[in-house]
Amino acid sequence: MINEKEWNQEQERLDVVTEKLKERIAEIEPEVAELQNQAVNIRKQFWEEVTVNTSTDEDFEETYYSIKQQEALLSERERSYQLRKQQSKSMKRLLHVPYFGRIDFHEDGMRSTEQVYIGVSSFVDSDGMSFLIYDWRTPIASMYYDYSPGAATYDTPAGRVGGTMELKRQYQISESKLRNVFDTTVTIGDQLLQQVLGKSPDSQMKSIVATIQKEQNAIIRNDKSRMLIVQGVAGSGKTSAALQRVAYLLYKYREWLKANQIVLFSPNPMFNSYVSTVLPELGEENMQQTTFQEYLEHELGTVLSLEDPFDQLEYVLTEQSTREYETRLKGIEYKASTIFLQAIRNYVELLSQRGMRFKSIRFRDRDLITVKQMETQFYSYEPTIRLANRVGLLQEWLLKELTILERKERDMHWVQEEINYLDKEHYADVYNDLHKERGVFDFAEQYEEIQEMLNKKNRRDESDFDYAEQEEEQLRRMVVKEYFKPLRKQVKKMLFIDMVGLYVQLFDKERAYWTMTNEAMAPEFWNDICEQTKEKLSQLELFYEDATPYLYLKELVEGVRTNTDVRHVFVDEGQDYSMFQYEYLKKLFPRARMTVLGDFGQAIFTHATELYGIESPLIQLYGASETDLIRLARSYRSTREIVDFTKSMLPSGKEIVPFERSGKKPNLSKVDSRAQLAMCLAEEIATLQTEGFTSIAVITKTAAESMDAYDLLTEHGCPSVRLITKQTPTFEQGTLIIPAYLAKGVEFDAVLIYDASSRTYHRESERKLFYTACTRAMHRLLLFATDDWTPFIQTLDASLYDVKSST
Ligand SMILES: Nc1ncnc2c1ncn2[C@@H]1O[C@H](COP(=O)(O)OP(=O)(O)OP(=O)(O)O)[C@@H](O)[C@H]1O
Predict the structure, then answer these.
(1) Is 132 in the pocket of ligand 1 (CB under 6 A)?
(2) Considering 258, 320, 333, 424, which has the largest number of Cβ atoms within 10 A of its Cβ?
(3) What is the CATH number of domain 662-804?
(4) Taking the model in full, what pTM does it have?
(5) For ligand 1, what atom is nearest to the CA of residue 201?
């Protein structure tokens, strides 16, 4: 703590800054209103201010420039308005907490020491020179996160600046009053962090700018590597760091980078709402948020219906060890592997020579263009041309063929029949078109003529015989064109390629597969995998594990529909993506840098990818020289007791370092019956609520178990529990029942594990799911079982938990 004199000085400075902020806000507010008025007025009077005259070329030109001028004026006013509004908003935000940190930095070679106060945005004094507050993302502020007092440096575009940090101070401020001041010797003082972490979680994630740790700062400010991989243990601040990194990038590259050029892939839709307030809190717009599933569905369109990853996981977790189950598991593994990825690439090579599959273009129950014709045309192209380019050529050819066929079709008998049944509007359209061509510009006259024509059924200018013929021709053209529209659309959408057939073709006997894929090794149970895959596809359904390979093949065949606008892709829970999915993302966003954050300790899917270490295939995605790896070992979320308990479940858990925050040990309650379980749960929930915990989760293994828990608790009068399913759109506080895989990435004051018995968690593959569930707890972890404890607990040292004796 600082002495009283220093405290008073700090409070005085705070008062001065607050006053200046208020003054500036008072100055700027009328300006904002005025600029807004001006912009609105310009908009309203836009057409009054420009002279529209198109009589001569000169008049037309004058009109054009007059409009341009007015447009420029409007956009200048709107820009100024937005800028001022932004400034006003950020000052209002500062008014609550002007700054949270200070460093005194003596730059080498300078006479004086600068006091650098750090807040969520910069605030410059009225002289336009002196920074009363520095934005946390400015280069100089980086020292606050990276150094303890002593020698320190920071990088600027002009080079590295060195000096001595003479002081490092942290503040807790609310309502313009200093609440706490800490001088720190370590990088960021633990006291403040202790206080922040001791609080209850919100229904929404909070910004961590005041307490970013050095290793997290390295993630936030890394802007050199094409690929940044972060392996961080549960609760180490990966998601937090990712969001502050977005804010940092938006600040540093504000001239070029807009929020909609950043995409975050979240583990589930509910998670999107959980993190959606962090960036606005920092004064930035939210990036695009999506889930991989959403992306797949978008790319697949309506042709196939896609299983979602949660249904796949439910299947893996619930089914018994049947042959079908083993087959599916092997299939999931194989279809996520780099062997299969290479197999598909090789398969595409083969398709360059033979084996392409097309769908004929059919019209009125006949083939307009046959598969044979397409094959002949396709394989007549130069074999050195890339497959996707040849498909492009074929598409052009088909469109031309359709034009020829469309012309021929006009003479068909059915067209005449169709014309006979045309309604009045169609005739009117044709009549209109023809008269337009004649140069009839008087709309009133034209309207009258049409009216008359329709009333008297006098369809044309009878004196002009040519018109009758032209009209007939025009009608035929119009009718056929209408019918050919969907055919053209099909061709443009590449529906002439039999994509399902192409994918299915790959799942052939081992020998054929081996040949097609240039000798790819098929996995165990290959024939069964083939049957299972084909069976599913015959119903126009796709297993989740097939979605990415299918789309990858589609992209290789049809050419990549890339998004070149996106510059940064963030993948949270990155361990749950396969290499296949990464390859696909790389293809989709060719101009983007990628940040992957995850924890192999929480890899709950069969297709998981190891993120860290030389074995990580992810390094190969952009190559080692373009990839940076960062490891986070310290866990901030849970108390030391909870971390000690959970880390012991993982073979690699030794590396996990708990943040020193104490609480109760995890508590184990064995119960004899479901009725007793309900009673215990209800009792514990009530106690936790009276202790002031506002966010409580009963975590189950599967959705079915969640349903079971919900029924049990509501039957036994446990009030206000909410059931969370994969359809729940937003994350809310309260007492929730939630399957473990949906609780990924989020946290709760207290977690109750609904059934930690060996009956529920026994397979080795379930270890990480169990670990993920337990690591959601911040302050309290309670586990229940109606049977023997899961082996993941049985093997733990008994000193790591308390046991509640059954009543
Ligand atoms: N530097 C920090 N200062 C304050 N709080 C922090 C800091 N780092 C992490 N936290 C807090 O720790 C908790 C866990 O953070 P976060 O959810 O980002 O971790 P994670 O690594 O993504 O976790 P998981 O993989 O388990 O989902 C959050 O409450 C976050 O606010």
Answers:
(1) no
(2) 333
(3) 3.40.50.300
(4) 0.85
(5) 29
